Amino acid sequence: MSFNVAQKLIASHLVVGQMVPGTEIGLRIDQTLTQDATGTLVMLELEALGLDRARTEVSVQYVDHNLLQADSKNAEDHEFLRSASRRFGLWFSKAGNGVSHPTHMQRFGIPGKSMVGSDSHTPAAGSLGMLAIGVGGTEVALAIAGEPLYMRMPEIWGVRLTGQLPPWTSAKDVILEMLRRHGVHGGINRIIEYYGPGLATLTAMDRHVIANMGAELGATTTVFPADDQVRAFLRSEQREGDFIELLADADAAYDVTEDIDLSTIEPLIALPSSPSNVVPVREVAGRPVEQVVIGSSANPGLRDFAIVAAITKGRQSYPGLSFDVNPSSRQILQDLTRMGATFDLISAGARLHQSGCMGCIGMGQAPANGRNSLRTMPRNFPGRSGTKEDSVYLCSPETAAAAALTGIITDPRDLTKLLGLEYPALELPAVSSVNLTMLEKPLPPEEASKVQLIKGENISPLPVFGPLADRIEAPVALIVGDDVSTDEILPAGARVLPYRSNIPKLAEFTFDQIDETYPARAVKTRDTSGHIVVAGANYGQGSSREHAAITPRFLGLRAVLAVSFARIHWQNLANFGVLALEFADAADHDRVQQGDVLVLAGIREALVAGTEIAVRNETRDEAYAVRNGLSTRQVEMLLVGGLIPWLRERRARAAGDRKEVR
Ligand code: MIC
User: Which of 199, 226, 290, 301 is geometrically suited to a Cys-Cys bond with 129, CB 3.0 to 4.6 A?
Assistant: First the structure.
């Protein structure tokens, strides 16, 4: 039987189920990645599970998001994460070492391996021929504890690349083209696999750019074959020994197919405030730009910085414009410095920041209200930059560099006539300046078992939620429309992020971007009826942050009724005992009004029997048909109140059975 790359990866990790699209499968997980903004909860979850030591081949805890230290909170989180890494046998990548995704690719990525990460951009590792999936923190905790990852078997979407990218375009324009064609829903329940002759022209880091932002299409993940480009990458990282070839069989088939001729790609840009608002740069040329930010996991490669340095070399950034550069890793900053590119960037007026995510999640670099900011980042959901009325555009390093020089949105191809600039040919070092000193190895088991977790004042205990009620009679506290992102449910930004390990405090910011009155109204329902949220399509798109499920649950959320859900958020809601139901008729969304009282009766029995849950709108005397799409495993989990109580019960049962047998 012939397999494509995605099927080979799944087949080699399949422990439960079969590769039939739409059915639940369980996968063995080899590696995990956690970052600080989601990792603190993961470590608390490991503690709650009573884990002694990580069961994976490699688990790495990165510190790359909460880097500004305006008070003690973020530093305390970093200290906690280091102590937990030492306790549970994880690698620890300290602040300043770099953004998790490129750093992981450089140091740990191995073709053919599986990985889960508590960050939606984890699929970037698909660039090396890995099966890498972004999930909520609890699922990462379980993977670290040696449990399989459960998910619905996706369809495999083959995208055949031909041709070669023209000058002044790069990998970012390829993924923006995918978003232009398919929007933020295009990849839902699909794995995207790139293949075809055009692949040979894309380096592993170019592929990282494309795989990273597959998350914006809603895809489960993106995969590339492990071919000569991957071998060359691993060689440059001094890890050629880790290379394993992984190619699709010659006659492999895909569930859906598509073609992109790379030679037809032109510079593209996503307008505020969705990664899918993509247009050719020339259509919006001339708009004023006040800020340009280079960096993030979406354009993390040495070439992505070096091309900006080469374009701006010997010139000055536009007066009044803020030209910010966030190196994606220390290694890349070292290489840029060795090449002289750091000098060129600073000379051109760049503000050089530390290696990390920085403005990508609003950790500093918030722009002025309503002023245009061009970023080489993956997301521009409303308010994500830290500015409530932000105006963020997403583009390639070439387009960003052009705007940095001209102060207006500029098609980079026009730099030839404007500035007499030919597309620079880059000479990158053949071998990267590998430096492992900011990566701490897991401690040997005996030493690790003696380590105490260091919990500063900012670390509050994980909230415990009770079992699912059989009847919910509760008011609709909020109604939202389509494509609401987790950035709108639980905001990013330097003001909010330091509370990621303090759920009671964090909850005060829930839905801040949409309705500041929600937390105060919601919390009043907590000890009585609870409340319900009604949403449109693709609810909870974007990040993997499970906080977007936990904080509303903490404030009394019992159920979300939506037209449809984004994959990770849907799982996160179930993991924390919130009933996520889809309207059978999307038009019912518009029939409900805020304040209506909905009654859901006989919930537990209906879930177990697999029959429909009846939803009545008491206020309007209407009934709505809903679906739940939960697997038997998820139903069991919901009934006991979520993933952690479920696993604890299962483990206690297994221990009891073992005793009886003895
Ligand atoms: C993001 O890009 O939205 C983040 C910040 O990396 C998140 C994780 C988080 O919210 O901490 C993600 O993508 O999952």
Answer: 226
Angstrom distances, CA of residue 196 to CA of 162, 250, 262, 466: 6, 11, 11, 51
**From the alpha carbon of 118, which atom of ligand 1 is closest?**
14
Ligand 1 atom nearest 379 alpha carbon: 2
C-beta 361 within 6 A of ligand 1: yes
- Shared domain for 389 and 246, answered yes or no, is no
| Å from CA of 213 to ligand 1 middle | 12
Tally of domains in the chain: 3
The vertex-445 CA angle with 442 and 450, nearest 5°, equals 100
pLDDT in tens, 298-334: 999 999 999 999 999 999 999 999 999 999 999 999 9
Phi, psi at 566, each rounded to 5°: -75, 145
Six token digits for residue 206: 């170019």
Last residue of a domain, one of 213, 236, 259: 259
Instruction: Write the CATH number for 353.
Output: 3.30.499.10
Print the domain residue range for 313. 270-419
Q: How many CB atoms lie within 10 A of CB 207?
A: 28
Q: Which residue type occupies 118?
A: S
Write out the two tokens for 604.
Answer: 């537990």
Question: Which amino acid, one-letter code, is at 164?
Answer: Q
The model's pLDDT over 135-153, given as tens digits with 9 standing for 90+, comes to 999 999 999 999 999 999 9
**How far does residue 623's CA lie from ligand 1's centre (Å)?**
37
If one residue of 36, 38, 133, 541 were mutated to test the ligand 1 pocket, choosing by the most ligand atoms within 8 A of its CB, it would be 38
Element (H, E) at 583: strand 579-583
659 confidence band (pLDDT: 50, 70, 90): low
Residue 545, ligand 1, Cβ within 6 A? yes
CA 90 to centroid of ligand 1, rounded, Å: 21
Return the residue matching tokens 């305390």.
76
Rounded CA-CA distance 59/399 in Å is 36
Ligand 1 nearest-atom number relative to CA 360: 2
Q: Where are the alpha helices (DSSP H) in 237-301?
A: 281-284
Å from CA of 119 to ligand 1 middle: 5
